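Incident log, structure service

09:12 report received: a user says their structure output differs between two submissions of the same chain.
09:20 pulled the input from the user's history:
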Amino acid sequence: MVDSDLPIALALPKKRASLQSNVVWGSRTVTVGGGAPVRIQSMTNTDTADAIGTAIQVKELALAGSELVRITVNTPEAAQAVPYVREQLDRMGIDVPLIGDFHFNGHRLLTDFPECAQALSKYRINPGNVGKGDKRDRQFGQMIEAAVRWNKPIRIGVNWGSLDQELLASMMDENSKRTVPWDAKPVMYEALITSALESAARAQEMGLPAHQIMLSCKVSGVQDLIAVYRELGRRCDYPLHLGLTEAGMGTKGTVASAAALAVLLQDGIGDTIRVSLTPAPGEARTQEVVIASEIIQALGLRTFVPSVTACPGCGRTTSTTFQELTKQIDDFLRAQMPVWRASYPGVENLKVAVMGCIVNGPGESKHADIGISLPGTGEAPAAPVFIDGEKRMTLRGDSIATDFQAVVENYIQQRFGSAAVATPN
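09:34 re-ran on a clean worker, output below:
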């Protein structure tokens, strides 16, 4: 046994010094970097030319917790629709900033449709898709000129699926001349980072302030992403946007995103994140926002929704009651959060425990703000409820689930309602 006078160090995320960018719409400002909380982004998959459909999906993403929403601007029709998307959101009271995602023809769209350029709060520019040869510099320059003219921040988003092939070929040639050439993958890493940093430097030369520039270098492999961003974070102080470029579907996409982003965020790298999930047929687009918020909350970086602790179940918990109640309470808390954020300040810090038997049930329930230990196999048909660490009541009968939900609602009103009253307007 090791004897030490020093306590075990807490596993706290590191901090990285980065510039702070402001993404603005009307009176709404979302700060990115510079000590601001890690922000959640998402992206619509609607045809932006359908202004109503796009506005509805933006609203859904914003209510789910997306603080910035990116929309595709790929055609004149889409560019024309952007101001109407913004107008519909304003009418619905959704003040989330919109990011325009541009490829290939962004220079023309931002120039030909100034109302679109103004309605967007930020532009995403892919340096690998702005043109080739002489056109690349000119067309990239036109997009930066629009950002300067309308005072908009940008994200220079490099992607290994659309990396500047001329740059990559040049770096491969240089690598072949080394005494000991690198493997192909480190050269690709270097090309990604070089593309981002050289593009950012050119934007600054054209008059865009450094704090208005964010960077991303997206790949689809977990270890590749970690390697690239660790080096990118070391070489610059621009705010960084994280995300696997194509995370995948379902469990694979969720696990890969959590594995990569958790490592980087724990290293202090990353100012905004997106979980780029492929939705299953019929699955809501908002699932990627839920997963992004869970990653950030699991690391203790921010709190978005009350946490529900529940056991996995075992031979002692043959009843499905605790599983059903856990899902019911979790769904209920998430559904109410858009309303509760305004009415009950601090409710996102609530901790609820729903346990399935007497082994760990009472202990976990005492650690939570409010918890219930449901009867397991062979246990008395009673469910003790603990509030603020003390046993307050025992629920019995067929209505345990409904009764416990009422207890949770009453606790929230009593604890967090007073905070709302005490908070000045």
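09:41 both user submissions now match this output. Likely a transient worker issue. Closing.
09:42 reviewer note: The CA atoms of residues 342 and 425 lie 11 Å apart. DSSP finds 13 helices and 17 strands in the chain.
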